Amino acid sequence: MSSRLPASLSAGWHAALELGYARLPGRTIPVRRRHVGPLRVQKHFVDATGVCQHIIVHPPGGIAGGDRLSIDVSLEEGADVLITSPGAAKWYDGFGRSASQSVTLALADGARLEWLPQETILYAGADVRLDSRIKLHGDASLLLGDVVCLGRPACGEHFDRGQWQQLAEIERNGRLIWCEHAVLPGASPLLASPVGLAGHSVVATLVWAGPALPDELHQAALEVDTPGRAAATQLPEVWLARFIGDSAEDAHHWLRHLRALLHPFTHGRPAQSPRIWAT
Amino acid sequence: MNGGLALLQLLRLASPSLPIGAYSYSQGLESALDLGLVTDATSARQWLHDVLHGPLSHFEAVLLVQACRALVGADEARLDAINQRLLASRDSRELRQETEQMGYSLRQLLAALPESQNQPWPSTLADAPVAVPVAWAVAARTLGLAEDAAVTGYLWGWLENQVMVLLKAMPMGQTAGQRLLSALLPELAVAVQTARTLPEDELSNFAPGLAWVAMKHETQYSRLFRS
């Protein structure tokens, strides 16, 4: 079937983006920006606290079978950056062809990154591999949010075909401090099992790799109200919060509430939300 | 080593009287009971089935197999990487403490046994906390057990301990517990094969419901178990 497609389409679309940031007195600026194919950043915005906010855009609006995205971000010493996206990443039915995204984040000593993209939506039939490899050095810190929607239940579409494969690894000074390996074929028993998603379709994770949360802050995080199943734990080198629910909106609401709660501790200032989140 | 002695060493390693404290952990099951996800013999069987065919045979037992192979190949760097991955994958503070405590206790026990006289503890694991599957792999090598015996014993230990949790916390009767074992032992044999043959890039510890109950256990009001 794919042999009848024009070669440019059957080969899939490869897009790569490379970003680098450096700290100047009082603010962080982009110092490197290279792209291949349809992955861009909008003009950066330095907020009043000197944080560089960047919005990664994928103009095609969706990812088809055969596409490959790669994003490579590095922060120099002391750089303070927030990266998000303008809308959901839609991974379409691959019609038997797989698609992938590879993200690498490297943070030098003293750097701080908030990696908070909008949700990933996997259409039924999407065969997707999403890898995130993160390397922290010295006392760099990371706040990483992830929201994944399996299928589109609102359209009556369940994740009954395809495969979601996701690997996340965080290292500090060369040692693995957190990892998650997910391989979930469409129609996996774990979609319905209480051990897995218990029939829900949205999972979200918030990871803070930095100093341990004070106990009262951890307790306050556990109190955050949500219609989903949510909980959190303080591990030796990361604080981890998880959500299982039925809508990306609920997941973002929970995640952003947590972020606002944690921010004075993690960043020493109130959380500023990128304006794109309000639209 | 002769087969008769290997079988005896396996029975000994997999015995609930092995002094490493396994009986004090429920691995989220107590919390699954408290939250109403497990309510009777049927839902208990389904829960254990799904954990076994999910993260246990697609992650933890796979890394145990890899650890056994790394020991056979004397690949200490690999052993260290496997240990890091197991520790980094724990979904709650209690599960992390559980694996470290049992790994430590098993190491202490081995050090005191005559079988370990000519088989020193791997030097790359000398100073770090050790996840229990890695310590188990070292124990299996020390006691002369083959990889399939090591994995079978590990999964059996898990299943027996989970059934003991149900007997105490549900509570479930002794005979019902034995019937549960009858139902799940053939599944366990399948899980051993899964763990030994799973391709590296199909490793998966995806189990958000299990992670959720394990985290919720940390604030559960009344508890018999430490996880």
UniProtKB/TrEMBL annotation, chain B:
InterPro entries the UniProt entry points to: UreF (IPR002639), UreF_sf (IPR038277)
Gene Ontology cellular component?
cytoplasm
Q: Where does this one sit in the cell?
A: Cytoplasm
MF terms in GO: nickel cation binding
Q: Which Gene3D superfamilies match?
A: Urease accessory protein UreF
Q: Enumerate the UniProt keywords alphabetically.
A: Chaperone, Cytoplasm, Nickel insertion
Determine if Cell inner membrane is one of this entry's keywords: no
Q: Could you tell me which Pfam families the record lists for this protein?
A: UreF
The entry's function note states: Required for maturation of urease via the functional incorporation of the urease nickel metallocenter.
Its family remark reads: Belongs to the UreF family.
Q: How does it assemble?
A: UreD, UreF and UreG form a complex that acts as a GTP-hydrolysis-dependent molecular chaperone, activating the urease apoprotein by helping to assemble the nickel containing metallocenter of UreC. The UreE protein probably delivers the nickel.
Q: HAMAP family recorded for this chain?
A: UreF (MF_01385)
Q: Check the record and name the PANTHER family matching this protein.
A: UREASE ACCESSORY PROTEIN F (PTHR33620:SF1)
Q: What is this protein called?
A: Urease accessory protein UreF
The organism encoding this protein is Pseudogulbenkiania ferrooxidans 2002
